[in-house]
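Bug: token stream looks shifted between consecutive jobs. Job 1:
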Amino acid sequence: MAYTIALSDEEYAALSAAAAERGTPIETLVHEALAERYAKRHSERASQATDPLITFMIQTGHVLRAPTRITDTSAERAERERLAAAAGPGKRASDIVIDDRGSR
């Protein structure tokens, strides 16, 4: 499967210059950069998981990282509570969905 991305003229010029320096096509340069940057992260996260289910879920992209079992700090809990309150204070998610859906 092939995908197309939009680049600005400056981005394309930078890629073209880097590819010319290395003597490789732009496509090869992009593939190498993506593999180097993102495949490594993916495999590192999967190797950190000891549970085979978690490893499988990381490899298939269902979760980003294994749970650390480290409790949140009070600042992290306060931030999560602040975001939850800002999202819709006093209203359950199921009620919001029903309101958005409208009457049938």
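Job 2, same session, no restart:
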Amino acid sequence: MIQKDRSPHGQKGYAVKRIVPESSHVEEPRSILDGIVHQGAEEVLARMLEIEIQEFLERHSGVVDDDGRRQVVRNGYHPERKVLTGAGSLKVK
């Protein structure tokens, strides 16, 4: 959830991330349709993140060091975590 607040430097209108604690209760899908929407939202989010990563890597493929080694590379994944959305809590890797 994004909350308008002040920046660390006192500027108004700065977007501050509000982190939802692990202990917050998030309801599981109540119906089969809710489950389908939830699963579809997770799949779409995963695909969109993958596309964004690939585009970023392609844009920076020419960044190399003096020995010709690429400086922007994919080096793995963060641990799976949950993101709270309108479709409920989605798993993201």
